[in-house]
Amino acid sequence: MSRWRNKLGEGETRGWALPSAALCAATSLNGGGEARCAHISSAPSGHLPLKGKVLGVRGGIGLDSGGGRGYNGAKMTPAQAGRPKEVTTMMHIGLLGFGVVGGGVWALCAPRDDLNVKRVLLRSPKEGLPEEVVTFNADDILNDPEIDTVVEVMGGLHPAYEYVSAALARGKNVVTANKALIAAYYTELTALAREKGAALRCTAAVGGGIPWLTNLERVKRLDTVCTVGGIMNGTTNFIMDAMHKAPVDFPAILKEAQDLGYAEADPSADIDGDDIRRKLCISANIAFDAALEETAIPTFGIRTVTAADIAAFQSHGFACKLLARAESTENGVCAYVEPTLVDAGDLEAAVPANFNLITYEAEQLGRQSFYGQGAGRFPTAENVVQDCLTVLSGKRGFYTDRAVPMFLTSGEAHPYYVRTSAPDAFLRGRTAETWDNGAVITGAVDVYEMLAWAKAQREKDPGVFIAGIR
Ligand SMILES: NC(=O)c1ccc[n+]([C@@H]2O[C@H](COP(=O)([O-])OP(=O)(O)OC[C@H]3O[C@@H](n4cnc5c(N)ncnc54)[C@H](OP(=O)(O)O)[C@@H]3O)[C@@H](O)[C@H]2O)c1
Fold it and tell me: Which residue, 222, 240, 346, 381, shows the most beta carbons closer than 10 Å to its own?
C-alpha cells in the first residue's frame, strides 16, 4: 500500500506490488534507439521453423536440406542456426501494407527460405519491391490459393476489417499489428479464426516489439492471471518522461515528440488514451477470457497536464505516468486508463523516453514485467515475423479460445490528485488535503466514479487534470 493510502487511511485499494513480486528485469532502464526487452523471452515452445532450403513443392511439406542463412545472408549450418534437422513447410505470405512495419516485415522475410512474401498490396507506388510482387488489388492475395497467410500492416479499421475477415473466411491465417482492428472486432474475428481452424495472431499490436501477448498466453497454461496493465504507450511515456526531466510545458514537448516522429500529426489517440485503452482491452480479453467493449473502458489522458503539476508531484516524491490497469473481479473486470502517481523510486518511474513496461500479476507466479520498445520498424516487425514463425510451427486459433462477454465493474478505490479551477460539492466532499499549488488530494474514491466526474468536469473546466495515486 502506498504511503498516501497509509497516510489517508481511507478505503481498501488493490495495489500492484505483491510481497513476493517476481520481476523479470534484466537490462538497464536507460534510453536508446534499440529495442531492449527486460524479460528473458520465453515464447511458446513448439517446433522451431527451419530456415534451410525446403525440398519439395511450395506450400507442401518438405525435408530441410540442413543449412540456413543468417539475416545478412551468410550460410549457416543447422547447428549454427540452433535448429535441429526436421520436416517443415514454407509459408506463403500476402502482405497488406508497405509502410513502417510492412517494410520491416519485408526486410526480415527476404533472406529466409521459409517465409515467402509472394505479393504485397500497395495503395500508392513504393520503391524497393520487385514488380511481380506488387499488386494494387487485394483480390490478388485473397483469391490466391497458394497464399496461406495474410499479414495485415495497413492500419485503420477499413478496409483492414474486410480484408482480414475475408482471409479468415477462406481459411487463411492472419497476422496483424493492428490494435484498432483487433480491439474493435475482437469477438467476431477470434470466433471466425476458431471456426475456420485458422491462426489469428497480433503480438505486435500490444507492446510493439515486446513479446507480451505470447507470454500472457504462456502464463495462462499454468496459472491464473489477476491483473494486467502498465505503461503501454511510448508517445505518452516520452512526453511524461521529458516533462519530469526539465520544466517544459505540454504543447512544447508534444511538438518535440512530433518532430522526432514519436507522435502523430493528430496526437489525440495517444494523448487522450485511446491507443493504450485498445491495448488494455486486448490484453484483458486474453488474460481473463473476456470480450470487453473497448470504448466502455473509462479513460483519462494527459492532454491537460502542466509543468506546475509535474513540479508539485516531484516535490512530494512522485512521478506521473499514463497507466492502464485491468483486474479480474468477482463480478467481471475492472479496467481503466488514467494518469497515475507512483513513488519516484518505483519501477514505472524509471521507464525512460518512449519505452514500455507491461505487467501481469498471476496467482502463483506473482508480478512479472516486460520492458522494451513499444514501437519502431524493426521491433514491431520482429513480433509480426515471430507470429508468422509461430503459425508456421503449427499453432492455430488465437491466444485464448474463449471470449466471454463480461461486465465492466468498478471495485477499486484510491486517492486522487485533482487540479481544477471549478471545484464543486463532489470534490469538496472528498478532499483530504490541499497542496500549495491549489490542487487537492482526495481520500479513496471509487475509480469509475472519479473518472466519470472528471469527464463531466471538462465541460466546466477544460483544463482539469486528475491523477490516481497508487
Ligand atoms: N509503427 C509502429 O511502430 C507500430 C507499432 C505497433 C503497431 N503498429 C501498427 O501497425 C500498423 C501499420 O503501422 P505503420 O506504422 O507501418 O503505418 P504506416 O507507416 O502508415 O504504413 C501503412 C501502410 O499501409 C498502406 N495502406 C493503408 N491503407 C491501404 C489500403 N487500403 N491498401 C493498401 N495499402 C494501404 C499505406 O499506404 P500509403 O503509403 O499509400 O498511405 C502505408 O504504406 C498499424 O495498425 C499500427 O497501429 C505500428
Answer: 381
